[in-house]
What does this fold into?
Amino acid sequence: MAFTWIRGRLVVVGYSPDGDSVRFVPDEIATVRGLESGRRVRPSERDGSIQLRLDAIDAPETHYQDQAQPLADEARATLLEAVGFSGVRFDDDDTVTAATPDSVPAAICASLVEVNGRPVALLVVGDAASAHEDGDEVDPATVVDVSVNATQTSNGRAYLTLYTSTPEPVRRRFLELAATATGPGSVWAADRSGGFTLTKQADVGPDGQLILPKLFRRATDYLRADTSADFLEWLRAQGGDDDPVEAAGRRTTLSELITQDGDRVSLTVPITDLVFVED
It folds into this structure.
Protein backbone atom coordinates (compact mmCIF):
# COMPACT_ATOMS: atom_id res chain seq x y z
CA MET A 1 0.00 0.00 0.00
CA ALA A 2 1.53 3.31 -1.10
CA PHE A 3 1.73 6.19 1.38
CA THR A 4 1.75 9.73 0.07
CA TRP A 5 3.24 12.91 1.56
CA ILE A 6 0.69 15.74 1.47
CA ARG A 7 1.70 19.25 2.48
CA GLY A 8 -0.65 21.92 3.80
CA ARG A 9 -1.63 23.71 7.00
CA LEU A 10 -3.77 23.14 10.07
CA VAL A 11 -6.68 25.39 11.08
CA VAL A 12 -8.82 25.34 14.21
CA VAL A 13 -10.87 28.56 14.43
CA GLY A 14 -14.51 27.79 13.71
CA TYR A 15 -13.97 24.06 14.26
CA SER A 16 -13.98 21.55 17.13
CA PRO A 17 -10.67 19.69 17.25
CA ASP A 18 -10.12 16.92 19.76
CA GLY A 19 -7.26 14.74 20.90
CA ASP A 20 -6.99 12.71 17.69
CA SER A 21 -8.50 14.86 14.94
CA VAL A 22 -7.96 18.31 13.46
CA ARG A 23 -8.71 20.23 10.25
CA PHE A 24 -6.09 20.29 7.48
CA VAL A 25 -6.00 22.47 4.36
CA PRO A 26 -3.97 20.63 1.69
CA ASP A 27 -1.83 22.64 -0.69
CA GLU A 28 -3.24 20.54 -3.54
CA ILE A 29 -6.58 18.78 -3.10
CA ALA A 30 -5.71 16.65 -6.12
CA THR A 31 -3.00 14.96 -4.05
CA VAL A 32 -5.63 13.96 -1.49
CA ARG A 33 -7.93 12.74 -4.25
CA GLY A 34 -5.15 10.40 -5.35
CA LEU A 35 -5.35 8.43 -2.10
CA GLU A 36 -7.31 5.18 -1.97
CA SER A 37 -11.01 6.17 -1.79
CA GLY A 38 -9.98 9.82 -2.15
CA ARG A 39 -13.39 10.56 -3.68
CA ARG A 40 -14.82 10.35 -0.14
CA VAL A 41 -13.17 13.64 0.89
CA ARG A 42 -15.50 16.64 1.12
CA PRO A 43 -13.48 19.86 1.62
CA SER A 44 -15.11 22.72 3.48
CA GLU A 45 -16.52 25.37 1.17
CA ARG A 46 -15.30 28.00 3.62
CA ASP A 47 -11.58 27.29 3.59
CA GLY A 48 -10.99 24.02 1.74
CA SER A 49 -10.11 22.19 4.95
CA ILE A 50 -10.69 18.50 5.52
CA GLN A 51 -10.98 16.54 8.75
CA LEU A 52 -8.12 14.18 9.58
CA ARG A 53 -8.21 10.93 11.53
CA LEU A 54 -4.85 10.43 13.18
CA ASP A 55 -3.74 6.87 12.58
CA ALA A 56 -3.18 4.36 15.41
CA ILE A 57 -4.71 6.50 18.17
CA ASP A 58 -8.13 7.18 19.67
CA ALA A 59 -8.38 9.96 22.26
CA PRO A 60 -11.15 10.32 24.85
CA GLU A 61 -14.20 11.94 23.28
CA THR A 62 -14.88 15.65 23.78
CA HIS A 63 -18.22 15.82 21.97
CA TYR A 64 -19.59 12.53 20.67
CA GLN A 65 -23.40 12.96 20.46
CA ASP A 66 -22.85 15.94 22.81
CA GLN A 67 -21.26 13.59 25.33
CA ALA A 68 -17.70 13.57 26.66
CA GLN A 69 -15.24 11.36 28.55
CA PRO A 70 -12.72 11.81 31.35
CA LEU A 71 -9.33 13.20 30.18
CA ALA A 72 -10.83 14.44 26.90
CA ASP A 73 -9.96 18.10 27.50
CA GLU A 74 -6.43 17.14 28.49
CA ALA A 75 -5.95 15.11 25.30
CA ARG A 76 -7.21 17.98 23.16
CA ALA A 77 -5.03 20.55 24.93
CA THR A 78 -1.95 18.39 24.45
CA LEU A 79 -2.63 17.93 20.75
CA LEU A 80 -3.18 21.66 20.16
CA GLU A 81 0.05 22.44 21.99
CA ALA A 82 1.94 19.74 20.10
CA VAL A 83 0.93 21.12 16.71
CA GLY A 84 1.73 24.71 17.70
CA PHE A 85 -1.50 26.51 18.60
CA SER A 86 -1.69 28.66 21.73
CA GLY A 87 -4.25 30.96 23.32
CA VAL A 88 -7.03 28.68 22.13
CA ARG A 89 -10.48 29.74 23.28
CA PHE A 90 -13.76 27.85 22.92
CA ASP A 91 -17.41 28.80 23.01
CA ASP A 92 -20.07 26.84 24.89
CA ASP A 93 -20.42 24.44 21.95
CA ASP A 94 -16.70 23.53 22.06
CA THR A 95 -16.02 25.45 18.86
CA VAL A 96 -12.70 27.34 18.70
CA THR A 97 -13.26 31.12 18.65
CA ALA A 98 -9.61 32.23 18.74
CA ALA A 99 -6.13 30.74 18.43
CA THR A 100 -2.57 31.86 17.70
CA PRO A 101 -1.38 31.59 14.97
CA ASP A 102 -4.23 31.49 12.43
CA SER A 103 -2.79 28.35 10.84
CA VAL A 104 0.19 26.02 11.26
CA PRO A 105 2.25 24.54 8.39
CA ALA A 106 1.95 20.75 8.44
CA ALA A 107 2.10 17.60 6.37
CA ILE A 108 0.40 14.25 6.49
CA CYS A 109 1.52 10.80 5.44
CA ALA A 110 -1.52 8.82 4.30
CA SER A 111 -2.64 6.02 2.00
CA LEU A 112 -6.43 6.02 2.24
CA VAL A 113 -9.57 7.94 3.12
CA GLU A 114 -11.95 6.17 5.50
CA VAL A 115 -15.72 5.87 5.25
CA ASN A 116 -16.38 9.19 6.98
CA GLY A 117 -14.25 11.08 4.45
CA ARG A 118 -11.18 11.54 6.65
CA PRO A 119 -7.65 10.73 5.47
CA VAL A 120 -6.11 8.24 7.91
CA ALA A 121 -2.87 10.05 8.57
CA LEU A 122 0.40 10.42 10.37
CA LEU A 123 0.56 14.15 11.11
CA VAL A 124 3.83 16.11 11.27
CA VAL A 125 4.58 19.76 11.96
CA GLY A 126 7.69 21.93 12.24
CA ASP A 127 10.80 21.15 10.23
CA ALA A 128 9.56 17.57 9.67
CA ALA A 129 6.68 18.89 7.57
CA SER A 130 9.09 20.01 4.82
CA ALA A 131 11.02 16.73 4.73
CA HIS A 132 9.40 15.70 1.43
CA GLU A 133 7.69 17.32 -1.52
CA ASP A 134 3.95 17.20 -1.99
CA GLY A 135 2.94 13.93 -3.62
CA ASP A 136 6.12 12.03 -2.78
CA GLU A 137 5.76 8.36 -1.89
CA VAL A 138 7.03 7.83 1.66
CA ASP A 139 7.68 4.86 3.93
CA PRO A 140 5.34 5.48 6.91
CA ALA A 141 7.66 3.63 9.30
CA THR A 142 10.17 6.47 8.88
CA VAL A 143 7.56 9.04 9.89
CA VAL A 144 6.13 7.55 13.09
CA ASP A 145 8.65 8.95 15.57
CA VAL A 146 8.29 12.56 14.35
CA SER A 147 4.50 12.42 14.18
CA VAL A 148 1.97 14.05 16.49
CA ASN A 149 0.38 10.58 16.65
CA ALA A 150 3.51 9.34 18.43
CA THR A 151 3.41 12.30 20.82
CA GLN A 152 -0.18 11.51 21.83
CA THR A 153 0.73 7.84 22.26
CA SER A 154 3.96 8.23 24.22
CA ASN A 155 2.49 10.78 26.64
CA GLY A 156 -0.54 8.58 27.31
CA ARG A 157 -3.10 11.14 26.13
CA ALA A 158 -4.62 8.76 23.59
CA TYR A 159 -5.35 5.06 23.46
CA LEU A 160 -3.46 2.91 21.01
CA THR A 161 -6.13 1.83 18.50
CA LEU A 162 -4.81 -0.15 15.57
CA TYR A 163 -6.49 -0.97 12.26
CA THR A 164 -5.75 -3.51 9.56
CA SER A 165 -4.88 -0.60 7.24
CA THR A 166 -1.90 0.27 9.46
CA PRO A 167 1.26 -1.46 8.14
CA GLU A 168 2.82 -4.02 10.47
CA PRO A 169 6.08 -2.07 11.10
CA VAL A 170 4.02 0.99 12.06
CA ARG A 171 1.86 -1.09 14.41
CA ARG A 172 4.94 -2.51 16.13
CA ARG A 173 6.40 0.93 16.76
CA PHE A 174 3.16 2.28 18.19
CA LEU A 175 2.91 -0.76 20.47
CA GLU A 176 6.40 0.06 21.76
CA LEU A 177 5.44 3.67 22.41
CA ALA A 178 2.20 2.73 24.18
CA ALA A 179 4.04 0.30 26.46
CA THR A 180 5.92 3.22 28.06
CA ALA A 181 2.85 5.44 28.57
CA THR A 182 1.28 3.87 31.64
CA GLY A 183 2.08 6.47 34.29
CA PRO A 184 -0.28 8.63 36.37
CA GLY A 185 -2.48 10.82 34.20
CA SER A 186 -2.36 8.47 31.23
CA VAL A 187 -5.44 6.89 29.71
CA TRP A 188 -3.95 3.50 30.57
CA ALA A 189 -3.77 4.31 34.27
CA ALA A 190 -7.39 5.51 34.29
CA ASP A 191 -8.86 2.91 31.94
CA ARG A 192 -11.77 0.79 33.20
CA SER A 193 -12.64 -1.03 29.98
CA GLY A 194 -11.92 -4.33 31.72
CA GLY A 195 -14.90 -3.84 34.01
CA PHE A 196 -17.28 -0.89 34.25
CA THR A 197 -20.86 -0.15 35.29
CA LEU A 198 -23.28 0.93 32.56
CA THR A 199 -26.72 2.12 33.63
CA LYS A 200 -26.70 5.80 32.55
CA GLN A 201 -24.55 8.24 30.56
CA ALA A 202 -22.95 9.68 33.68
CA ASP A 203 -21.38 6.28 34.39
CA VAL A 204 -19.00 6.85 31.47
CA GLY A 205 -19.20 10.66 31.33
CA PRO A 206 -16.56 13.25 32.24
CA ASP A 207 -16.78 12.43 35.95
CA GLY A 208 -17.34 8.71 35.45
CA GLN A 209 -15.32 5.73 34.25
CA LEU A 210 -12.88 6.05 31.37
CA ILE A 211 -13.27 3.35 28.72
CA LEU A 212 -11.91 2.79 25.23
CA PRO A 213 -13.46 5.56 23.08
CA LYS A 214 -14.81 3.09 20.54
CA LEU A 215 -16.58 1.27 23.38
CA PHE A 216 -17.77 4.62 24.75
CA ARG A 217 -19.36 5.52 21.42
CA ARG A 218 -21.20 2.22 21.28
CA ALA A 219 -22.33 2.61 24.90
CA THR A 220 -23.58 6.14 24.22
CA ASP A 221 -25.53 4.94 21.18
CA TYR A 222 -27.02 2.16 23.29
CA LEU A 223 -28.08 4.52 26.08
CA ARG A 224 -29.88 6.67 23.49
CA ALA A 225 -31.60 3.71 21.84
CA ASP A 226 -35.22 2.82 22.52
CA THR A 227 -34.56 -0.75 23.63
CA SER A 228 -35.25 -3.13 26.49
CA ALA A 229 -32.17 -5.22 25.64
CA ASP A 230 -29.03 -5.06 27.71
CA PHE A 231 -25.92 -3.51 26.17
CA LEU A 232 -24.40 -6.76 24.93
CA GLU A 233 -27.64 -7.96 23.35
CA TRP A 234 -28.08 -4.58 21.67
CA LEU A 235 -24.51 -4.53 20.36
CA ARG A 236 -24.82 -8.00 18.84
CA ALA A 237 -27.88 -6.81 16.92
CA GLN A 238 -26.11 -3.83 15.35
CA GLY A 239 -24.65 -5.53 12.28
CA GLY A 240 -21.84 -3.39 10.88
CA ASP A 241 -21.73 -1.25 14.03
CA ASP A 242 -20.65 -4.35 15.98
CA ASP A 243 -17.07 -3.63 14.95
CA PRO A 244 -15.20 -6.39 13.14
CA VAL A 245 -11.87 -6.91 14.86
CA GLU A 246 -8.89 -9.23 14.90
CA ALA A 247 -7.72 -10.55 18.25
CA ALA A 248 -5.04 -13.20 18.78
CA GLY A 249 -4.97 -13.79 15.03
CA ARG A 250 -8.69 -14.53 14.87
CA ARG A 251 -11.31 -12.37 13.17
CA THR A 252 -14.37 -11.76 15.31
CA THR A 253 -16.58 -8.86 16.43
CA LEU A 254 -16.33 -6.49 19.36
CA SER A 255 -19.38 -8.01 21.06
CA GLU A 256 -17.72 -11.43 21.12
CA LEU A 257 -14.93 -9.94 23.23
CA ILE A 258 -17.30 -8.45 25.80
CA THR A 259 -19.13 -10.04 28.72
CA GLN A 260 -21.98 -8.59 30.75
CA ASP A 261 -23.21 -9.55 34.21
CA GLY A 262 -26.13 -7.35 35.17
CA ASP A 263 -24.94 -3.76 34.89
CA ARG A 264 -21.29 -4.81 34.75
CA VAL A 265 -19.70 -4.76 31.29
CA SER A 266 -16.19 -6.07 30.64
CA LEU A 267 -13.84 -6.09 27.68
CA THR A 268 -12.13 -9.44 28.05
CA VAL A 269 -8.93 -8.90 26.05
CA PRO A 270 -6.17 -6.26 26.34
CA ILE A 271 -6.82 -3.22 24.17
CA THR A 272 -3.32 -3.51 22.74
CA ASP A 273 -4.20 -6.97 21.35
CA LEU A 274 -7.00 -5.55 19.16
CA VAL A 275 -6.70 -4.71 15.46
CA PHE A 276 -9.92 -3.27 14.06
CA VAL A 277 -10.86 -4.07 10.48
CA GLU A 278 -10.79 -0.98 8.25
CA ASP A 279 -13.85 -0.59 6.01
